[in-house]
Amino acid sequence: MKNINLSDINISHYQDKIVNFGVSLVVGILIIIIGFWIASWVGRLIKKQFTRSELSVSLRSFIADLVAMLIRILVILVAMNTLGVQTTSFVALLGGLAVGIGMALQGSLANFAGGLLILLFKPFKVGDTVEVMGNTGTVQEISILQTIMLMPNMKTVILPNGSVFNSVIINYSKSGERRIELEVGIGYEDDFDKAKAILLDILKNEPTLIHDKGYVVEINEFGESSVNLAIYAYVKSADYMATRWKLNREVKTAFDANGIDIPCPQRYIHIVPDKKES
């Protein structure tokens, strides 16, 4: 057995390695502690900022947690690099894993991206009345992957955010005002000026209308059985449906009281006598 001469061992070399590793370990631990604290602080800050928005609680928490998680992953990579660990292969593994998950969840990621774009550009918010993908209703919730709407018939419609953002969105609440558009027919024998005066009087006496914007009562078209009048007036978005129904009732009542008929479709049939019978 070969005798080991302790004098041949460079103890200072190993001491330097141990000291350097110890320093790197302490620095790495400090990086993790401080980095994780920063991640938690950023997450809380995002949640606090989002409390002023109309986003659902679940979406606020998800975005805050996602940002905090990404910061923690970055902190761990920096700490590993400080300890001398090669992070290239680890990053490549994470990248491959992300690609695989992305392909498996392609539709969900598109909906998540749509949700973020809705948050960023704000085409609508909770409480707005919108028309999207053929559905008209009130936005109840903007969640992580979907938008939930309540229809006038009290049915709940759940729409994927990706499809929502890529479709045409009509927001009836954005300006806070809506134009009521009514059409009513009068007979060809009726006096248009008289009918117009009656309709204008109804509009001027309706308190929910925005009178500064004026009104329109004009002949819209000549139908087969009636002269069709267009009635335009502006109202607050919240009063739209109730005012529309009220105006319809008042128009019918006023026309009945003034002897103006609202014609139904009519057909005149002329019977030609048979020449043989004559």
Please describe what this structure looks like:
The chain has 278 residues and is an alpha+beta fold. It folds into 3 domains: 9-104, Helix Hairpins; 123-171, SH3 type barrels (Roll); 177-257, Alpha-Beta Plaits (2-Layer Sandwich). The chain has 7 helices and 8 strands, in the order H-H-H-H-E-E-E-E-H-E-E-H-E-E-H. It has helices spanning 11-50, 57-82, 88-104, 106-121, 161-165, 192-204, 240-257; strands spanning 129-132, 135-142, 146-150, 156-160, 169-171, 177-186, 215-222, 227-236. Helix 1 (11-50) packs antiparallel against helix 2 and helix 6 packs across helix 7 (240-257). The model has no long low-confidence stretch (mean pLDDT 82).
Structure summary:
The protein has 278 residues and is an alpha+beta fold.
What is the element layout, followed by pairings?
Elements: H1 11-50, H2 57-82, H3 88-104, H4 106-121, E1 129-132, E2 135-142, E3 146-150, E4 156-160, H5 161-165, E5 169-171, E6 177-186, H6 192-204, E7 215-222, E8 227-236, H7 240-257
Antiparallel strand pairs: 1-2, 1-5, 2-3, 3-4, 6-8, 7-8
Helix pairs in contact: 1-2, 6-7
Q: How much strand content do the residues show?
A: 15-25%
Q: What is the structural class?
A: alpha+beta
Tell me the number of helical segments per DSSP (H or I, 4 or more residues long): 7
Give the strand line-up of the largest sheet: 4-3-2-1-5
Cα-atom Rg, whole angstroms?
A: 36 Å
Order of helices and strands: HHHHEEEEHEEHEEH
Shape: elongated
Look at the structure and give the CATH class of the largest domain. Mainly Alpha
Distance between the termini: 145 Å
User: Which stretches of 5+ consecutive residues score pLDDT under 50?
Assistant: none
Q: Please count the beta strands (DSSP E, at least 2 residues each).
A: 8
- In total, the number of domains comes to 3
Helical fraction: 40-55%
Subcellular location: Cell membrane
GO molecular function: mechanosensitive monoatomic ion channel activity
Main location: membrane
Protein name: Small conductance mechanosensitive channel
